């Protein structure tokens, strides 16, 4: 039998190594391209450094706040200012829900705010009617309202939860959770009726993304 027509083990090993090297080259090219793309996105992100939006209470009117333990009826008219401080980053707002809380208890149901896009350094006014009819509350809530009434000050929290997306050029990020917490102080004379109350203090809200 002729040995010329038979590949030696060294020839087989050399041939196999050649195929592996080809695949490794393709894999290396793919990983290099992917790494360059990710590095570019991170670099653009760090240079632009999106700043979280600002929210401010422009006006809040409590038209009703009646506690008949263990139920509560409430009605609040809200005007909220939102600002995009970024000069090169737009913001998409999605699935926004606003509600009011008093002393850690939710006193209105969630009110949906329409989704919208906010351009560079733009501001928008959002309005919402927050209502709670027959909401179950702790038995102590009526007593706490009475104490605040005697003190001449009622403090209500306005909360907005939802999602946002950053827009840089044509690139749009994934969703990020948005949580906004505003504190509204309603002042009234001791002994006066709890409703209606109005606040136009323009209080700044805390925002987390």
Main sheet characteristics: 8 strands, antiparallel
- Mean pLDDT score, rounded? 83
- What is the CATH C-level name of the largest domain? Mainly Beta
The domain tally reads 2
Radius of gyration: 30 Å
Portion of residues in helices? 10-25%
The number of strands is 12
Q: Number of helical runs?
A: 2
CATH topology of the largest domain: Immunoglobulin-like
Taken in chain order, the helices and strands follow as: HEEEEEEEHEEEEE
pLDDT < 50 stretches: none
Supply the helix-strand structural class. alpha+beta
Shape: elongated
Task: Tell me the strand percentage band.
Answer: over 45%
N- to C-terminal separation?
77 Å
CATH architecture of the largest domain: Sandwich
Structure at a glance:
With 209 residues, the chain is an alpha+beta fold.
What keyword list fits this structure?
12 strands; elongated; eight-stranded antiparallel beta sheet; 209 residues; four-stranded antiparallel beta sheet; 2 domains; single chain; 24% helix; Immunoglobulin-like; alpha+beta
What does this structure look like?
The mean pLDDT is 83. It is built from 2 helices and 12 strands. The strands form 2 sheets. Strands 3, 4, 5, 6, 8, 9, 10 and 12 form an 8-stranded antiparallel sheet that branches. The protein starts with 8 loop residues before the first helix and ends with a strand. Strand 8 and strand 9 form a beta hairpin. 24% of the residues lie in helices and 47% in strands. The protein has 2 domains: 43 residues; 155 residues, Immunoglobulin-like.
Question: What layout of secondary structure does this protein have?
Answer:
Blueprint (H helix, E strand, L loop, with lengths): L8 H40 L5 E15 L2 E13 L6 E13 L2 E2 L4 E3 L2 E3 L4 E14 L4 H11 L1 E16 L2 E2 L3 E12 L9 E3 L6 E3 L1
